[in-house]
Known about the structure:
5 strands; 124 residues; 17% strand; globular; alpha+beta; single chain
Amino acid sequence: MPTSSTAAWLTAQPRVGEVYFPGLPECDPQQIIGRQMRGPGAMVAFAMEGGYAAAARFTGSVTLFTHAVSLGGVDSLVQHPAALTHRPVANEARPHEAVLRLSIGLEDPEDLCADLARAFAAAR
């Protein structure tokens, strides 16, 4: 599954603090996947080191992922909630400024990871 391999790849990246994806064993300690669901889905979130500015540079540097307000569909998308959907939300209700959300589409996982690697390099 492209999402699982992309999420696993993200966990090994030095610029990533945490990865949130129920398909990773550490994100599903009670093993709900399989008992209550058919799979973990296509959404991945991660906290990027470097704060808002690094996350903004990252989203501006991807080429296969489209920077989008809404997530879902067959194309891979990236969202920076602090810069888009959650700007008008009160500070205490906002996700951390460095959290990025990915919606993994049908592209090859190796291509997606290569795109993410380029964006990490550009976000330094």
